């Protein structure tokens, strides 16, 4: 096993009725976030008051729920790392449901697929960067220190995934798939599209391109090529967003975010950075410059020119 991975401690299989109960029957006011793959709810265990996040997979998701469920549970449940969200339980149970068929309702057996994670009170990175939870810090230095810590944490989590004995490629990195704990430590979540690479395998091709507009690497988007560099492209966009505080707004006409990238290249030149972070000292400004440089290298159209995650982590740590 790769370093950073402890012995697998498989999560519990939980009854569907229990998950219904702790989420108040998947009540609207318990919703944390939603995606095409499923809705995340806050669950509270009545006796202990323990909190967990319960993801209920959609029946009409872009990929079949059973396939999504299997990928997420099997790819992630044994992983132990500070920057990877921890699965604490799961449920795959048949239930009776009224469904419409040929203009009438019939009772059908539906497999309910749910995954339970550790509960992270600060929600998603997107909420904290651009949404209702947008963090207001007393000083610019405190703000930058937190942003830099988040960037480094995401990169450490991705380094762990990419350097496992059997690497995992996430394939859907974006601010919504990064969750923050009470201390603003980032954890990579949402592994529904993740791919496991075999020994010596560095690239695979698919005819089914599924992902988030604005974060997909061009070689995946247009040719179905999947490699570790697919994640590096998405990572670069997030590093740029966190550093510049400018939002990459997905656009169907610009699915790989070229317009956003060009704007950053034009407005975040090295000579402009001191005016944008006016109260940072020379060390802080050097960190900002380094993050902009790394982010822009990560979004190179040619994947061969993107840095590896090992090099990114070394540069963030000031090794070179």
Descriptive overview:
The chain has helices at residues 16-22, 65-76, 125-130, 140-162, 218-223, 228-244, 258-267, 273-276, 282-298, 309-316; strands at residues 12-13, 31-35, 38-44, 51-57, 87-101, 104-118, 168-169, 178-180, 186-188, 195-196, 203-205, 225-227. The protein is an alpha+beta fold and 320 residues long. It folds into two domains: 12-118, Phosphorylase Kinase, domain 1, CATH 3.30.200; 125-316, Transferase(Phosphotransferase), domain 1. Strand 2 and strand 3 form a beta hairpin. The longest helix is centred in the middle third of the chain and has 23 residues, at 140-162. It starts with 11 loop residues before the first strand and ends with a helix.
List the helices and strands and how they pair.
Blueprint: E1 12-13, H1 16-22, E2 31-35, E3 38-44, E4 51-57, H2 65-76, E5 87-101, E6 104-118, H3 125-130, H4 140-162, E7 168-169, E8 178-180, E9 186-188, E10 195-196, E11 203-205, H5 218-223, E12 225-227, H6 228-244, H7 258-267, H8 273-276, H9 282-298, H10 309-316
Report the oligomer.
single chain
What is the helical fraction, as a range of percent?
Answer: 25-40%
Q: What is the CATH class designation of the largest domain? A: Mainly Alpha
Give the mean pLDDT: 84
SS content category? alpha+beta
CATH architecture grouping of the largest domain: Orthogonal Bundle
The description of the largest β-sheet is: 6 strands, mixed
User: Biggest sheet: strands side by side, in what order?
Assistant: 1-5-6-4-3-2
Task: Please report the distance between the alpha carbons of the first and last residues.
Answer: 28 Å
What is the N-to-C succession of helices and strands? Answer: EHEEEHEEHHEEEEEHEHHHHH
Low-confidence region ranges: 1-8
CATH topology of the largest domain, by name, is Transferase(Phosphotransferase), domain 1
**In total, how many beta strands?**
12
User: What would you report as the Rg, rounded to the nearest angstrom?
Assistant: 20 Å
Number of helices: 10
Characterize the overall form.
globular
Instruction: Tell me what portion of residues adopts beta-strand conformation.
Output: 15-25%
């Amino acid at each position: 096993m790769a370093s950073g991975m402890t012995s697998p401690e498989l999560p519990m299989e939980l009854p569907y009725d229990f998950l219904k109960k702790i989420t108040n029957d998947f009540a609207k006011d318990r919703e944390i976030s939603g995606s095409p793959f499923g809705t995340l709810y806050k669950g509270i265990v009545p006796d202990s008051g323990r909190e967990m996040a319960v993801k209920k997979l959609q029946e009409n998701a872009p990929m079949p729920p059973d396939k999504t469920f299997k990928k997420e549970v099997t790819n992630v449940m044994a992983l132990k790392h500070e920057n990877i969200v921890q699965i604490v339980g799961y449920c795959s149970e048949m239930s009776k449901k009224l469904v419409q068929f040929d203009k009438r309702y019939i009772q059908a057996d539906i497999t309910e697929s749910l995954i339970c994670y550790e509960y992270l009170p600060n929600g998603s990175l997107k909420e904290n960067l651009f949404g209702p939870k947008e963090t207001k810090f007393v000083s610019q230095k405190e703000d930058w220190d937190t942003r830099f810590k988040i960037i480094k944490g995401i990169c450490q989590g991705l380094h762990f995934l990419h350097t496992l004995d059997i690497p995992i490629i996430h394939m859907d990195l974006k601010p919504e798939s990064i969750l923050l704990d009470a201390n603003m430590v980032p954890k990579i979540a949402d592994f529904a599209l993740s791919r496991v690479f075999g020994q010596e395998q560095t690239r695979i091709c698919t005819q089914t391109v599924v992902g988030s507009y604005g974060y997909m690497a061009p070689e995946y988007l247009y040719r179905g090529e999947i490699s570790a560099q697919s994640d590096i492209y998405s990572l670069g966009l997030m590093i740029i967003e966190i550093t510049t505080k400018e939002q990459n707004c997905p656009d169907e006409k610009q699915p790989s975010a070229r317009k956003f990238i060009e704007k950053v290249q034009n407005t975040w030149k090295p000579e402009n950075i001191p005016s944008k972070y006016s109260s940072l000292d020379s060390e802080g400004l050097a960190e900002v410059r380094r993050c902009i440089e790394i982010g822009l290298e990560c979004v190179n159209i040619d994947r061969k020119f993107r840095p590896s995650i090992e090099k990114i982590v070394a540069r963030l740590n000031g090794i070179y």
